[in-house]
Amino acid sequence: MKLQMIGLSHHNASVEIRERLAFSPDQAQEALKTFRSRFPDIESVLLSTCNRTEIYTAALDGNLCPTHHDMVQFWAEFHQLEAKDVFDNVLERTGEDVVRHLFTVAASLDSMVVGEAQILSQVKQAYELSTQIDSAGTLTHSCFQAAIRVAKRVSNETTIHKKRVSIPSVAVSDFASNVFDRFDDKNVLIIGAGEMAEETSRYLLDVGAKEFTVVNRSLERAERLAATFAGKALHWDQLHEAVIAADLIVSTTGATEPIIRLEEYKQLEAARFQRTLFVLDLAIPRDFDPRIAERVGVYLFSIDDLRQTCDKNRAAREREWPKAERIIEDETAKFMADLNHRATAPTIRRLKQRSDELKDEELKRLLNKLGDIDPRIADEIIRSFDRLVNKLLHPPLESLRDEAGSASSDSLLDALKRLFRLYD
């Protein structure tokens, strides 16, 4: 029985690397099918998000599992890359470390934004895809179902998911939500097309925003980001037109001076008909003249306004972190104990059954030979045989339980099967 994972994330790989080695949903399905055809006895689940890509594999017979090199070679071939391009950027985990890692990922303790809810749905989707195409199996079913349960426990028993710590998450959950009751009827304008713009847009999407417009100096980049949210892209010279139409603006450009000055906004103001305007100016230097905040109906927040809330939330979350880690460790230990029990239980059961059969045969032979004896003596003989068998079995079974889950457990289990001839 073996669990293993190779993968990369924002912890050890740049966004350029992550983009090259990621799998779209269609690619993930194709990759899992190809993997299954190459390794028919191996279970697999592929998790690919903007911040991580991980391939989980498992097998009841650990000897059948592909090697680290096999996994890397498969990944590289799928993306038509050199194996070294993958090998130099991925990490490997096996056994208990895989379980602990998956539980940590699902609970959003390993995310770029700790506590964000999106990763659990992504873990569920990865598992469901694997199940749909019959790529999952006994071990991966157990592992991923447990991970989903653990994530819910962390969410219910700690406040780690309730305190946003990233600038975009705080901007949406702590600021924009205080201005707007709903987002599905709001026109969202994204100015700039970098990571901050994309992350903030994802949070807005999560709270119900549907209408997105992207304006960027590079129309091509604007179109790429807009396509992510089924929005539209506009040329940079249409910026003023977009500001007039917007209800909520997220601005993240790298401009060295304001892109909307107070005088410019005053010229656009009449066309807005005093509609509320919420502006998240996440650029440094600021994109919007700070004096615009004084205009009627304008809620303008800069990155400094948000940072203080982030710091408070981070401190509150850090107090909850040990509690979340204890849950992960507790659940990992329980899962491994159950997994090891399932691995050794059939062998232990067969050994006890075989011992009882031999004991009963010898008891029957002895009691028949002794003939008509005092029932109390017969009962004592039976109890003596039982004690003898139990004492003989206790050391090997105790060793098997003690070694369960360790590197030597498979060889010990195999030795026990051979010594007592317990093979099916």
From TrEMBL:
- Please list the residue ranges annotated as the Tetrapyrrole biosynthesis glutamyl-tRNA reductase dimerisation domain: 323-422
One Pfam family name is GlutR_N
The GO biological-process annotations, alphabetized, read as: protoporphyrinogen IX biosynthetic process from glutamate
Reactions this protein catalyses: (S)-4-amino-5-oxopentanoate + tRNA(Glu) + NADP(+) = L-glutamyl-tRNA(Glu) + NADPH + H(+)
Per its UniProt entry, which superkingdom is the organism in? Bacteria
Instruction: Describe the location of the Quinate/shikimate 5-dehydrogenase/glutamyl-tRNA reductase domain by residue ranges.
Output: 175-308
Q: Where is this site: Important for activity?
A: 101
Residue stretches making up the Glutamyl-tRNA reductase N-terminal domain:
6-158
Q: How does it assemble?
A: Homodimer.
Tell me what else is known. During catalysis, the active site Cys acts as a nucleophile attacking the alpha-carbonyl group of tRNA-bound glutamate with the formation of a thioester intermediate between enzyme and glutamate, and the concomitant release of tRNA(Glu). The thioester intermediate is finally reduced by direct hydride transfer from NADPH, to form the product GSA.
Q: What does this protein do?
A: Catalyzes the NADPH-dependent reduction of glutamyl-tRNA(Glu) to glutamate 1-semialdehyde (GSA).
Protein name stated in the entry: Glutamyl-tRNA reductase
Gene name on record?
hemA
